[in-house]
Fold this sequence. Notes:
single chain; alpha+beta; three-stranded antiparallel β-sheet
Amino acid sequence: xxxxxxxxxxxxxxxxxxxxxxxxxxxxxxxxxxxxxxxxxxxxxxxxxxxxxxxxxxxxxxxxxxxxxxxxxxxxxxxxxxxxxxxxx
Length: 89
């Protein structure tokens, strides 16, 4: 992770991971804006930081970006994200 620890400090970034935590398919950035009640540029900024930290991956389809949690996250990273997203132990 390039910016791992710092990238998780923002509550909006933690919230941005939540919709993708159990998603089977990539999620459109437009769906994040509705769920998180934040503007598209704000969500894009946070998702860019998460991508820089190697926590999410993206693909573009037309004008929209679709994001998903990286499939190859280390087990320790998945456990930490689980605690942040689900409040697990």
